[in-house]
Design brief:
This protein has a single domain, classed as Nucleoside phosphorylase domain (Rossmann fold), CATH 3.40.50.1580. Helices cover about 25% and strands about 20% of the residues. Strand 3 and strand 4 form a beta hairpin. Strands 1, 2, 3, 4, 5, 6, 7, 8, 9, 10 and 11 form an 11-stranded mixed sheet that branches. It has 5 helices and 11 strands; from the N terminus they run ββββαβββαββαβαβα. By secondary structure, it is an alpha/beta fold. It is globular and about 50 Å long.
Length: about 260
Amino acid sequence: MKSSAKKPEIAIIGGTGLETLFRNFQQVRKGTPYGIPPALFLGDIEGNTLVFLPRHGLKHSIPPHKINHHANLNALQQMGVKRVIATNAVGAINKAFKPKDIIIPHDFIDFTKSQPTTFYENTSVMHVDLTQPYCPEIRKTLIEAGKRSKIKVSDCAVLICTSGPRLETPAEVEMFHRLGGDLIGMTGAAEAVLSRELEMCYATVCFVTNMAAGLQKRLTMHEVAENAEKIRPVIEKLLSETIRTIPHNRNCPCAHALKNARF
């Protein structure tokens, strides 16, 4: 993987198990009005310049409730990013999903408590449309890339987002299931909303590392890390094919998300 002087239009935000996926890229540090994000990594894949952001830091030292999503996404915008493809390690609420399954969720329910989800705290009142919470163009490209690569990818799931860092109780998981949740994670909602406010396309690839509380006897972080390591080569293959085939021009609503959002 070669580094590039060109501006990256695509970013990958990686979580558990993907911190070192782009370790051969050129490291870049970026300051923002919201603070300093983790080190960014700039390089080329499949002829496209992109930047990789490890949301938990390279040594997984940033817990989910302390991730500075504002700084992360503002830094990507400063670099010229137009599209964000995220990865999320998740637990399965829906018993149809099993560890090491790959899912492209179509919707989410936000149960986070401590993560601000707007850039418009003290400015104009903006209400971005989340009828399609994830960019339809990136989702389509991910799903088609999975088919071409013979990777089993599920394309319909609701992601429940909680604050963490603790894991959920069996009663909470049962409640989320009754509300229509299929997967559960701790970082997907804030990134999706803030990306939309910046008119950046955003979609996520979820990979199941465990069954949620109450659906298996116990859960350890060793199990999560082990399953994340096993699925990493498949995720890398899916991301590479997606980056290779993503349309050059954006033909989705994300680029004009603020057009009719001002109150």
